[in-house]
Amino acid sequence: MESRRGNQMEFSELPATRRIQRLSSHISPAVTAPPQQPMVQTEACASRSKKLEVNGEALSLYMRGKHMDIQEKVYEFFNSRPDLQTPIEISKDDHRELCMRQLYGVVREAGIRPFRYVADDPEKYFAIMEAVGSVDMSLGIKLGVQYSLWGGSVINLGTKKHRDKYFDGIDNLDYTGCFAMTELHHGSNVQGLQTTATFDPITDEFIIDTPHDGAIKWWIGNAAVHGKFATVFARLILPTHDSKGVSDMGVHAFIVPIRDLKTHQALPGVEIQDCGHKVGLNGVDNGALRFRSVRIPRDNLLNRFGDVSRDGKYTSSLPTINKRFGATLGELVGGRVGLAYASVGVLKISATIAIRYSLLRQQFGPPKQPEVSILDYQSHQHKLMPMLASTYAYHFATVYLVEKYSEMKKTHDEQLVADVHALSAGLKSYVTSYTAKSLSVCREACGGHGYAAVNRFGSLRNDHDIFQTFEGDNTVLLQQVAADLLKQYKEKFQGGTLTVTWSYLRESMNSYLAQPNPVTARWEGEDHLRDPKFQLDAFRYRTSRLLQSVAMRLKKHTKTLGTFGAWNRCLNHLLTLAESHIESVILARFIEAVQNCSDASARAALKLVCDLYALDRIWKDIGTYRNVDYVAPNKAKAIHKLTEYLSFQVRNVAKELVDAFELPDHVTRAPIAMQSDAYAQYTQVVGF
Length: 688
Prior knowledge:
By secondary structure, the protein is an alpha+beta fold. The chain folds into three domains: about 110 residues, Butyryl-Coa Dehydrogenase, subunit A, domain 1, CATH 1.10.540; about 140 residues, Butyryl-CoA Dehydrogenase, subunit A, domain 2, CATH 2.40.110; about 350 residues, Butyryl-CoA Dehydrogenase, subunit A, domain 3. Helix content is about 60%, strand content about 10%. The protein has 26 helices and eleven strands. Strands 1, 2, 3, 5, 6 and 9 form a six-stranded mixed beta sheet that branches. Helix 12 packs parallel to helix 14, helix 13 packs across helix 21 and helix 13 packs across helix 23. It is found in: Peroxisome. Pfam families: ACOX, ACOX_C_alpha1, Acyl-CoA_dh_M. Keywords: FAD, Fatty acid metabolism, Flavoprotein, Lipid metabolism, Oxidoreductase, Peroxisome, Transit peptide. One of its GO terms (molecular function) is FAD binding. InterPro entries: ACO, ACOX_C_alpha1, Acyl-CoA_Oxase/DH_mid-dom, Acyl-CoA_Oxase/DH_mid-dom_sf, Acyl-CoA_oxidase, Acyl-CoA_oxidase_C, AcylCo_DH-like_C, AcylCoA_DH/oxidase_NM_dom_sf.
């Protein structure tokens, strides 16, 4: 060993080596940086800076926005009606009936009418949906099925005659309904649906038919027990006078009564079965529907994008099946917007429970000294503080999405429609996947007490899990984002315009694809690392590199594998690209929200969590940045240290940050999260 050390020392002193080192220092000179911060440990952090003072009231007001009053109305109603609060142990059938009574209570007793806001004030509608979902997620989904899906399909895909006939009944719950799109053999591939609606020109009716078992409508919310109508998506078949005899006009939507309004019995030709007990959301009555030559009036075609005349002629303002299909699905994007927004609500609840408990719970400590809060342990901070920062990031991103969706509904601007479609797909996929993983982390962070059903993690996890599948499978949605990015990339180099979300590609694709600056790659000062420009540039650089590299790979593999084969060969690369882009959008919205906050104290708190979100994400993907020398080794180390320090700082104000969500105790409902005497609450639950 000694001789090897000596050889290494001799080699390092060789003249050639010294010359190379000098030349390197001229090419990439050392950057003068502020003195290095001390090692990030509890004692060092405590002496480094004072605890941030947070104006909780100002922060909460900024977070909850202009529709907090309607949410308070929901909370106050359920707080006054303990009989409508969902118990821990409840059967499937009882849960379904309770969920329906909860919905009646919100609409008919509390006087909250969500349907009136679906089209005219979506921001208010989603605020209501978040509040009722925090009381019981089944209630949030049931409300969404009634108003977003069944009601939304009538007013968005139909015309004035449909609105006039059905609006009041949907609004007051006289006309409870379903959204019958998914089939046993087709979920994500909506264009492959096989239920048929054949026009009969003699009787002026459509005949709805399920041609085989694979076309049975499956997982239809409200169908098993409560639904009276269904919006049925079926292939429109028209008779022709040519050799084929019929013409398939593609998937259209039809209003089909499924139960008698007086007796509530299934109507002739309609077969209804119960999908049974599910992993979660058992307050929602999912069922299966089979149609055997069910006749409906021609007027029951939701005819905004395509109509059939009395003599069987088809007319549409859109020239092709694909255009009509795209327009139809585009009007239903509100479901994805709502799920992304609601998923953040679930994340707020789970983070609040886990963090409040972690502040309360004490285990171990220095010898002969009191035990310390488990949130004082760096490992616990590592689990929960970046999650809290992400919760804030996703809150502002989904608020932005809701605002853009509302603007889209008012203006019908084509570019905005395309932007909201891609953004809702990306955020729904990204946020619901993150929340699903975080629920397990929160349960684990609360140890054995987190396993008690009364502390909600089990029900939250089970109820939320399907968010990753319905309204679009997450993997499929990310592919839509990647496809749109590639389309924008192509248009960028053909001189076309780019939509709002992708504008950074127009502004700086060339600079992002240039070689990293060897000087800035070494900067490691705290001011630099906490500069929003550095953070956003890093996110966008990664996205641009991924976009360029996958475009090159697709071009290469298409020559031998064809378009489909090339896409499949590059699929994981494409999913990573989509996630990277969505993270860039999230960070941009978070930075903007920080800058727009008028209260200095609240703004400082938001800046802290924004920095933690950004640097934690950079650190988690540090290998990518190191591989292309975007970040030098010393800078990577500085990012890691600063991330740990920021986690500690966020821990110091964690209570204020979760309190800003203003979730009442009866909403979190977990005894371990009660803000006063949590252990006393918990012991009472088990009977002491």
